[in-house]
Amino acid sequence: MPDATPLMPSTQQLDTMLSLQAAMNRKVDPDWVNAAYPYLRAVVVEAAEAIEHHGWKWWKKQTLDMAQLQMEVIDIWHFVLSEVLLRHQGDESQASVQLLADYRKTGSGLVEFDNQGYDLASMTLLEKLELLTGLAAARRIEIAVFASIMQDCGMSWNDLFAQYVSKNVLNFFRQDHGYKDGSYQKIWHGKEDNEHLVEVMATLSATVDTYPADLYQALKQRYPV
Fold this sequence. Notes:
The chain has 225 residues and is mainly α. It is 61% helix and 5% strand. It has 2 domains: 11-153, Orthogonal Bundle (all-alpha NTP pyrophosphatase fold); 160-222. Helix 3 packs antiparallel against helix 6. Mean pLDDT is 90; it is low at 1-6.
């Protein structure tokens, strides 16, 4: 079972994730900083998808899909990192300092938005996802809200780090194998690439420095040539 306590991320973890995210942004567009893509708009969309996986329709029976919800949390984090990097013109060191400073402000569990106070401890996961959506639409980043959503999803920062790095490696793998021009095969041997990723992750340790490279190589060995 994952550690449900969202322990403070280490500087090394943040630096690694920011470096990987900056590299992915450059992979997609070498001029990504000047392009200034609306990363928080992407957060709005991903948060809405998370709400769908949670289930919100009172007029029909729905089942919370926690595994998919966690994947949406990882996707949201990709875009949060990108937005923080963008606000610092791609400077990874400044972005890391900013994220750590923001995290240290999360202790009170209180968030002010649109002249209304929100006590995260008294809110449901669904309400927090709605709040995250509204904040992102207003071009605001509140790490306290994100951390609280992580906790409700049974994720610690260590869990987030392992899953983020894994998804980032998969994104690189996709780009290297034709994702942008449409030649990439998302289904191999009857399984989607995300399923292969989960299987490979179970065979590797996310604590070793070579984890990203080992994961990439394992995916490459499975991918049909």
